[in-house]
């Protein structure tokens, strides 16, 4: 794939696949006569970086990404942030020789990618475009990903970032992004959840009572994961709420408490008696077994 651009009498050949360094350098160029590169070409370079179809020396990589993150066009900003997410977390779902290759690449790039954290967090908090904020959430989350830290596919939230997310959740207007924030807490490993419990408890309780059913569902799951006993009556109340996922996750969360939730067996039984969804019914049955076990 190549495209020829004429700048005065100079012809600049850009070929992203066979000459990625030239293409990436061109991404940063503009002049009074040629203007900035087209948005579609900027995104093509960034998307290739996100998917590991091309690589750059670390310092050139960070210059290209920084240029994209600060671009005036929201689609370019989002593509650059997804590129950060892809470079930082690409090893997560790779296998075999590709996995080993991406792990090695991440070790060389981690330091320069970390230097982008301040502008990524600014985009997450202040960008007017929701897709940019969504991409920034993925980028910031993947910066904390450690492929050598145990479970390669687990979500990692460091305490400072977890605290920031709870503040963002309180003011975020996009329902989709609010769901993604709560989901980040709900899908943590039990060990990770315990490490940020003080920073996330109030947010999860508020989320479980949210009118958005997806926010409420993940709030309930997060309460179960963190074993927030004071919030147990609230998720019991979700067993009859509209929205299959809310009832499903509430049932799962109650089961996570085991015998601590035994006093709520009558409410679980009552919910089971009127439940019409097969999956939720099976989950409620399993929940009853879990809270009655000795």
Following the backbone from N to C, one meets helices and strands in this order, namely: EEHHHHHHHHHHHHHHHH
What portion of residues belong to β-strands? Answer: under 5%
End-to-end Cα distance: 65 Å
- Round the mean pLDDT to the nearest integer and report it: 84
Counting DSSP H or I runs of 4 or more residues, the number of helices is 16
Side by side, the strands of the main sheet go 1-2
Cα-atom radius of gyration: 23 Å
Structural class: mainly alpha
Portion in helices: 55-70%
Q: Which descriptor suits the 3D outline?
A: elongated
What is the total number of structural domains?
Answer: 2
* Low-confidence sequence ranges: 1-20
SSE layout and pairing:
Blueprint: E1 3-7, E2 10-14, H1 20-27, H2 39-50, H3 58-69, H4 74-89, H5 96-114, H6 117-126, H7 130-143, H8 159-171, H9 175-186, H10 190-195, H11 197-208, H12 213-226, H13 232-236, H14 244-256, H15 265-274, H16 278-292
Antiparallel strand pairs: 1-2
Helix pairs in contact: 1-3, 2-4, 3-4, 3-5, 4-5, 4-7, 6-7, 8-9, 9-12, 11-12, 12-14, 14-16, 15-16
